[in-house]
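Re: that chain you flagged

S.,

Sorry for the slow reply, it's been a week of failed gels. I finally had a moment to sit down with the sequence you sent. For the record, here it is as I used it:
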Amino acid sequence: MNQPLFHHLNFEKKPKYLTRLEQVPQLSEEERNRLQPVSDKFVFRSNDYYNSLINWDDPADPIRKIIVPEVQELDDWGKLDASDEEKYTKVRGLEHKYDSTALLLVNEVCAAYCRFCFRKRLFMDDNEEVTKDISEGLEYIRAHKEISNVLLTGGDPLIMATSKLEPIIRQLREVEHVKIIRIGTKIPAFNPYRILKDHSLLEMIRKYSHIEKRIYIMAHFNHPRELTSVALEGLDALMRAGAIVVNQTPMVKGVNDDPEVLMELFQKLSFIGVPPYYVFQCRPTEGNKPYDIPVERTYEIFEQARARCSGLAKRARLVMSHASGKIEILGLTEKHIVFKYQRAADNEDSGKVVLFKRNPEAYWFDDYEESVEELSLAGV
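Prediction finished late last night. Pasting the structure tokens below so you have them in one place:
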């Protein structure tokens, strides 16, 4: 059997980025022709390091599922901005949905493109949500003293040269009320050599991750096989430099929708000191039909995985990033499903618990129609 090649390849040089299906020799010409219309619509990008983790003899390989297009992505499903992020865009490149947190979209490129990405609209030619000039966003943050957390996202900020990322970090550190800088990134999984071969990146983290004001790395490991030895080295380097590293992942059909797989991911993360932070309900984004799982099935898998874990491995919360807020999926009874607003766009809804009649066909909060009860727990 053709096992993943990682241990047999030498990546002394930078991994080579792949932006065309014909650069993937493991795909037959027939497969490339069949998948080309998909990559024409939703761009393909990977690299030879990450492709080496795939068992190409297995058409259902979970790492392949993350990165290789599927024809079903062209099925009619969802919308490009499933969480109405544009609604919360205050100036170009900045979203402000929750009082204390702002998002700076600093980049429209990733090291590779997850097929289930909820921001695939950013990688399309007519996207205007991201700007390379973040001066407006920085000015907005300076003027809004309630903002204590800034999440750098996009795209992937760590695909940027450190010389371009450092001025952003420096200017945010000069804003007294910004206490936490978060960097949302899948670089530790897609290309850990970006971390290990750039000492200036680690020096930048040492410089700006202070005792009282930390830099958080919001890592994105979706499957335990992504936690290779070199990925662990990259994570360790970030932590030794002073960053706090946590992990978040959507639950994705064919990738981690198995309690044993999700349990293994949680456990391995806990072993290396990277807390599982969030598991997301995969958003009903256009193109995501082959990757989405019904909400109630997601909950069952999540709880079965957590039941097999120690306390340190079961810290993740199961949430969905809905237009109205960050909604935790709390539980199921025989007839009902229970949600809680961990954070709401409307502050009055934060802490609210909502009960709906169960709907096994629901993929998103909006698919629940009959509310049974709403309880406000704010301040309790």
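What I noticed first: The first strand starts at residue 17 and ends at 18.

Talk soon,
D.
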